[in-house]
Amino acid sequence: MLYLVEHFYSIQGEGRYTGTPSLFFRFGGCNMRCEGFGCKEKAPSGVVVLGCDTVYAVNKEHFAQNWIPIKNAHELLNVLALYELPTNVDIVLTGGEPLIYGNDAIFIEFLNALHIKGHQITFETNGSLDIDFEKYPIYKECIFALSVKLSNSNEPFHKRVRGDVIYNIASNAKEAFFKFSIDADSIDLSLEEEIDSIIIHSQKTKVYCMPLGGSKEEVERNTEPLIEFCKAKGYNFSDRLHIRVWDRNKGV
Ligand code: SF4
């Protein structure tokens, strides 16, 4: 079953397309937990669940009762009619990890329909789940923000860094770029080595570094040291505009 957690029309807040008006679909479920990020959220049952800043879209066990089960592609396509959208507005598919549905027939039908309607589709993915570009050529028309997880996620290396997957996506997609969330306190030689061990799998792919944080205060604290890091390494700095503007609010 495919699950949608929420949808909202906003501007892209981070990465290469920062500032672009975009309709977001947040899908439920992920192949990781990333408890190292230390975000806590109270589930409907009252249990406090540890994870990333979108733990409510990751942890099926505790949050699925708030997710919307999707039974056909029209239910997803009908979301577009709920908003007053400019023609061909960008569509961003996020989560959780949207590619856990990468082989799902409803999901593929949805992608094809969006493409035929002229929308640019961007995936926000952890870059660890492979894609069959020959079986599903629609993925060759999509953009991939590869937010490969660093060791601060507490996920094991073999699970979070899949060199074959990174190479496959970067080589076959319409466009791909790396996107890393970085805490000022973790900027040191080992971080540089860690990023190098990921980007080596696709050396021509551009790198965007964003300040880590689920709140405006955290983002602001991490911004200046990260800009200096980007200057030194030749990476692109990316703001997290949605957090800077709307702070901890969700669905904006
Ligand atoms: S991979 Fe992304 S969505 Fe999944 S748990 Fe980690 S940070 Fe959250």
Tell me the major beta sheet. 9 strands, mixed
Kindly report the name of the CATH homologous superfamily.
Aldolase class I
Strand order of the largest sheet: 5-1-2-6-7-8-9-10-11
Reading the helices and strands in chain order gives EEEEHEHEHEEHHEHEHEH
Can you offer a commentary on this structure?
The structure is a single chain. The chain has 252 residues and is of the alpha/beta class. It has one domain (2-246): TIM Barrel. The chain has eight helices and eleven strands. It has helices at 60-63, 73-77, 105-116, 157-160, 163-172, 189-199, 216-233, 241-246, and strands at residues 2-11, 21-27, 39-42, 48-51, 68-70, 90-94, 121-125, 143-146, 175-182, 207-211, 236-237. The strands form two sheets. Strands 5-1-2-6-7-8-9-10-11 form a nine-stranded mixed sheet. A two-stranded antiparallel ribbon has the order 3-4. The two termini are 26 Å apart. Bound molecules: iron/sulfur cluster. Iron/sulfur cluster binds at residues 30, 32-34, 51-52, 54, 58, 95-97, 126, 149, 153.
